[in-house]
Amino acid sequence: MMTSTEQVQVSGTNPKRLGSRAGSNNSGMESSIFKFKNVNFVAGKGDKQKHLLQDVSGTVKFGRVLAVMGPSGAGKTTLISALTLDAHYGTPSGAVTLNGVALTDKLFKRHCYVVKQHDKHWPYLTCRETLQYAAELYQVADRSNIPAVVEETIQKMGLAVCADTRCARLSGGQARRLSIGMALLKQPTVLFLDEPTSGLDAAAADNIMQEIVRVAKDERLIIMCSIHQPSSKVYQGFDQLMILSRGREAYSGDLIDAPPYFESIGAPVPSQMNPAEHYLDLVNSDFSSEEEVVKLLDTWEERAPNQQSSHGPANNDEGQDGVTGGLRRNFFDDLQIMFRRHFKLIIRDPVLYVGRMVMILISNLVFAFVYWNARDYLQSQVPNKHFINIWFVAVASNMGVVAVYALNDEFKSILRETKNGGLNPFAYVVAKSIMVVPVLWVMSIFALAIPGLLVQDQPKDVFLQASLLWTVIMFCFECLAECLSVWVEDQIFGMLQFMNFWFMCFLFSGNFIESTILYYPFELFYHILPFSYYIRSCTYLNLHDATWDQCTGGPAIGQAICVESGDPTEVLDSLSNIYGVVDSEDHVARDMLVIFGIGMIFKILYVVGVWVKTSKVATIKSN
């Protein structure tokens, strides 16, 4: 709930439009008609099949607002999901058209917008920045006029008090108003709002709905919203009303026709009572008997008139036929916006990259000091020098599990933007893929510079190669995190799968058991997982050119290696007798290429996942 200082201040006047806007007023869609007829929705199969919607129909014309009301479980959200081609949990059927053209995903992205019940914003962007990027993506005005358009939206949505507050710190009501503000920026032909007043107090809800009604009239938009229990003031602002119960219509028509209809069936609205509350009581089995609710639904089914509105502007103008091409998106415009936005998010997000850099530095410093006595190039310390390199990457790569969680959350925002036609998802994929490589290289500096060079006295002349090798294997795990974030919807389960992969990498690295004594198919894991390639090359880089102490008389008690010549090649060969993954030959370039190839497999799976998920549409089947 919001305090009085958060309440929306809305002007009832129509402000001067700024720049070249992309709304229905200048898209050739200003006299549109949205129709849906005999919409059904069936979930489950066999004995568990359930009809969530049954023959729901309606017509909404330009400049009008249709409110869909009903008790919990009535089918309001299901109807919105079906009409927005987003009901993936069952089978929708019926006919849905815009100006006589069947609604498709392409048509939806060009001319429609849906605000979901649960708000999802970029947590580390401010309200102003969120609206700024949305305005750029929707090309709502000339570039120079966008700040003025954004400021206008901030004022209209009552967001001035939190304009420069990060979205993670917004109240529920502020987040809701930001979502609606983004929708109004696009100025779609059809705007769907699922519970637009959710999280708002009475005063804020009234003002928001006044703004929505004003926009519908002034911009000639079609607005359809589900709403649970509106106040009397909010209710009176609607043009049309649909009452649902048990997935069926109890009434659908103009708001002013509702009282005469209910009076005609013996259920008049009591004086001094909010009509919305009265209608909801009638169709709610918690307040009316099952028989009375079913009778009410059957009565409307028998007496329902033609789904044509008899009031408002549509009475004088039946509307247009066909749709315009709409706004044509430019991939490179989206790409440069993604670069700017996600560079800012990378800098600000304390978890995804910056926080990991700090934690990797701390953990690797701990290992570096634990292995302090291994810093000298003594043959007795060769195994320890081998293991310090393993620890420097093992814990760091394991921290990639947080990326699964963060990227899963991020992808949900990308899905929302793609759904509403605000973004080409592959612009996001390309921008993030390019930016993440230098970020991971910087992360390698945190991982290896102080712990490796300064504390462990590792050779400086191979630091660049070592850091690139570390970057490549972290790229591999980052691509895995991206892949899981898209394909596995449950964040926790995705994180568990990441941990399983990491553990398998550790187990089948060739460091604990040689690949030659593994039974098939376990031996296969040694070749297709990246740790063995990293360990082999990292150990080679740090030990192959070192100057070792002389060792005579054989190894001392507890000492594994004693090469009399101290020759680095012979030291590595001796170490390979203990750890089969070690090799005295230079495989660095090839190993980096193999690790990169494994990462690219995950990257390809990630790109395919983005394509599948962003292209997924719940097509409405014809009855």
UniProtKB/TrEMBL annotation:
UniProt domain ABC transporter: residue ranges: 34-271
Region (Disordered): 1-27
Localization terms from the record: Membrane
Keyword Protein transport: no
Keyword vocabulary terms for this entry: ATP-binding, Membrane, Nucleotide-binding, Transmembrane, Transmembrane helix, Transport
One Gene Ontology molecular-function label: ATP binding
Membrane topology: Multi-pass membrane protein
GO cellular component term of the entry, any: membrane
Primary location: membrane
Biased composition (Polar residues): 1-14
Membrane-spanning parts: 351-374, 386-407, 428-450, 462-488, 500-522, 592-612
Alphabetized InterPro entries for the sequence: AAA+_ATPase (IPR003593), ABC2_TM (IPR013525), ABC_transporter-like_ATP-bd (IPR003439), ABC_transporter-like_CS (IPR017871), ABCG_dom (IPR043926), ABCG_transporters (IPR050352), P-loop_NTPase (IPR027417)
A matching Pfam family: ABC2_membrane_7
Protein name: White-brown complex homolog protein 30
Organism field: Seminavis robusta
